[in-house]
Structures are given as structure tokens and as C-alpha cells.
Amino acid sequence: MAIDPYANCNFTVTDESQCTLETCCLAQSNFLYIPSYGANLFFTIFFAVAILPQFVLGILYRTWGFAIALIVGLVLEVLGYAARLQINDNPFDNNAFLLYLIAATIAPVFISAGVYLCLGRIIVVYGQSNSRFTPRTVALAFMTSDFLSLLLQAVGGAIAETANDEGTKQTGVDIMIAGLVLQAISLAVFLLVVADFGLRCRRGVLDMNAEKQKTRERFVFKAFMASLLLATVAILIRSIFRVAELWGGFSGKLWNNETDFLVLDGAMIGLAIVCLTAFHPGVAFGGMWRAASWSFKARERDYVYGLERENNLREEALKISGLDCPRAGGRAGQGQI
């Protein structure tokens, strides 16, 4: 039975943390509803259970960066939904609300970081000459954006919840919105970069390395590529929803609709986790995950060497096929950033 959020209001109470449902109304808490115990328990358990396969697969395939990003994101999701369970028990628990607000808001930032880490290796497997950007540039750009998004969301959440006046609280909400907008833009740009890379691969010549060819032809790798795109779209949908949710403020309709939250936040992130676990990049790349690695410290000569290696492999194949094919961009900086 739904509780009237405005029943039994007592605005003479100055410290809302001392409120109970017997002495105050839900309108004096952070939601106009009591979070569902069953639904939030489900997501708490779901994300907690998902940590184990990410941990095991990370060790087996040594996908350290990806594993750390996903596990941190999952731990934050668990903390966020566990906090909602605490709010179910006590709607006026501001500490639990602060934990939920920050943890559940920034958790997808780490999950998207794991997605970004995959693109650099995908570029290596298909051939760096087919990309406008080097793996290093791609990683630096999206990881920097991810970090700024994380910072804005965390700081904004802390300001919004600890504010003593409505003006400061709104400032915190605005900062959170800025972080979420940045995250959504980053994900959208990421999808555009992936689409552009895919078109260039169809029109260009792929890396002729036998192991890379074998990796590209595996069903699990193709399924991984599709699941990576689906996971990215799911996280993007969630980010757009959170922007719309916070845009209306803590008293807005979306903020106070738990069904929308569970479907467009919890279920979307859950879908992304299923995609990134069922078709784990370590399994998809096999032994090529480490072989396709790159360094943030990579220099121009490393890129030149990579192009020369691609050209040599192509020329060996052309001697056999008799086909004519242009060499990959001869100097670093031509066609790539």
C-alpha cells in the first residue's frame, strides 16, 4: 500500500535525521516514496555476484585494467543499492542517502572506462592505419573525459547533500548534471569514433598478421564487438536518464519515480554488465589481449615501427596474391592523431 508522502508532516522538526514515519512525512525525506526492498535487494545481489566472474576472468586473461575498472564500478553499484535498502528501513537516513547518491551516480563512470580500454586493442587487432587516432590518443581522450565526469559527479553529489540552503544544494545538483552531460557526450562521441573506425576498416586493408586475422574471424570476438556496442548504448541511455532525472531536482517527477529509476538506471547498467561478462574481452581476444596492448608512454617511433610492420606483412601477402594495395600512411601524424 502506497504511503501518502504529505501525510503527518511536521515542519517544526529542525533536524530531519531525527524524524521517523510516525513524527514526520516522506516529503521531509529525500524521496517521496520508500525504496522497494525486493527490487533493491535484487540489484544489490546481482551486482555483488557479478564481481566474482570479473575477478576470475581478469586473473585468467590478465585483463588488469578492464577488471579493476569493472570491479570498482560493481562495488560502487553494490554500495549504492545497499544504501537504498538502508533508506527503505529509515527514509530519513541522510548518510545512507549520501552514499547512494554518490556511489550509484559515479559507478557507471568506471564501467565506461572499461569499455574505453577495449577500443585501443580493437584498433591494434584491425590495424592502426585504419584509425584516425592512435590507441594512445583514444585512451587518453576518453579516460580524461571519464575522470572529469567522475570528479564533477562526486563533488556535485557531496555539495548537494551536505548543503544547508537550497541555493547551495541546487549548485551541487547543477555540478552533478554537468558531469552526467559530459559522460553522455563522451559515450556518444565514442560511438561515433567506433562507427568511423568500422567504416574505414571496411574500405581499407586490415592487419595481415595471422594471429590478428584469426582473432577477428572468431565468433566470440564478433559477439564481443556487438556486446560492447550494446553495453555502451545501455550506459548512454542511463546517463541521459540521470541528466533528465536531476534536471527536475530532488522534488521532480522523475526523481521520485522508482520504477523509472530501476528500469533506466539499474536495468541498463545490469544489461551492460551482462554484455561485458558473457562476452568478456579476455575470452574474445584470447592471447591477443596482451599482444594488442599499448603504452601511454608510446612515442612516435613506436607508431612508425607499427606501420612499417603492417606494410611488410601486406607486401608479403601481395607477393602471393598479386593484388595492388597502397601502403599504410608512411609517417606518424599523417591521417592519425
UniProtKB/TrEMBL annotation:
It is a multi-pass membrane protein. It is found in: Membrane. Its main location: membrane. Keywords: Membrane, Transmembrane, Transmembrane helix. The chain crosses the membrane at residues 37-57, 64-85, 97-126, 138-160, 175-199, 219-241, 261-289. GO terms for cellular component: fungal-type vacuole; plasma membrane. InterPro entries: RTA1 (IPR007568). PANTHER family: PROTEIN RTA1-RELATED, SPHINGOID LONG-CHAIN BASE TRANSPORTER RSB1. This is Putative RTA1 domain protein.
